[in-house]
Amino acid sequence: MIKNLKKINSIALVILLFVAFSLSAITAQAKQRIIVIDPGCQAIENNQKESIGPGAWKRVSEDMVGATGVTTGNKEYDVNLQIALKVNELLGDNYKVELTRKSNDVDMSNSDRAMIANTLKADLYISIHASNPNDASKGITVICQTKDNPYSLTNYSNSRLLADTLLGSLADKTGAESYKVLESDKLMGINWCTVPNAIVNVGNLNNQQDDERLAEEDYQQKIAEGIVAGIDSYFSQK
């Protein structure tokens, strides 16, 4: 009887050690993953034109300051940074995280931001925005490249997977309206990036309801949790 108990205890100990080792290995692997989070826009206006993608003849300028809340007057660059800092805090325990900016007083082009992810050979690049310049529609949208993007032919499947997981997780966490993933070859943040990437529009400051919700600390936290859940879901499917 005593021998059997010792044998059972030994087996249990081996199992516990195996589980502990496995969890440590998983955590170590996650810590090796590099996530670059880009709080879109900035306080400094920059209307200098840049190529829409590597080697492209077409040059465009963008509104780097972004939108202003129709009700709150909050600046998009500020909202984006607030959410990005929350994402950084949540991701910090399990991933190596790099923010493209930590203040609003910067002067960076979209290609500058993407190049940070490229240089670090990041596992993911996620750019956070909070507006739809074309209308006042509300809700969350996620944008990734098209399958035939001429500037990055190898990123599509991973970028599309990332966009899908982000949209689903954000909808679950926030309860906000969400739309299908949009695909585009017209955005410099996508075209200049050589790692899997997505642009997340967490709402629309041009819409009164979204503007008011994005001003709430608790709602920003839910958005951050949704982004983190989307990242975790992405890696669970790799």
How would you characterize the overall build of this protein?
The strands form two sheets. A six-stranded mixed sheet has the order 4-1-5-8-6-7, with helices on both faces. The chain has a two-stranded antiparallel ribbon with strand order 2-3. It contains seven helices and eight strands, in the order αβββαβαββαβαβαα. The model is unreliable at 17-22 (pLDDT under 50). The protein is globular. It is of the alpha/beta class and 238 residues long. The chain folds into two domains: 1-32; 34-236, Aminopeptidase (3-Layer(aba) Sandwich), CATH 3.40.630. It is 45% helix and 13% strand.
Jot down its keywords.
2 domains; 8 strands; 45% helix
- CATH 2nd-level architecture of the largest domain: 3-Layer(aba) Sandwich
Radius of gyration from CA coordinates: 21 Å
> What amount of the residues lies in strands?
5-15%
Task: Report the strand count.
Answer: 8
Strand order of the largest sheet: 4-1-5-8-6-7
Share of helical residues: 40-55%
Determine the N-to-C terminus distance. 47 Å
CATH superfamily of the largest domain: Zn-dependent exopeptidases
CATH class of the largest domain: Alpha Beta
* CATH level-3 fold name of the largest domain: Aminopeptidase
Largest sheet: 6 strands, mixed
Low-confidence residue ranges: 17-22
Class based on secondary structure composition and strand pairing: alpha/beta
**What's the average pLDDT?**
88
SSE string: HEEEHEHEEHEHEHH
Number of helices: 7
What count of domains describes the coordinates?
Answer: 2
Shape: globular
Protein name: N-acetylmuramoyl-L-alanine amidase
Organism: Pseudobutyrivibrio xylanivorans DSM 14809
Keywords: Hydrolase, Signal
Signal peptide: 1-30
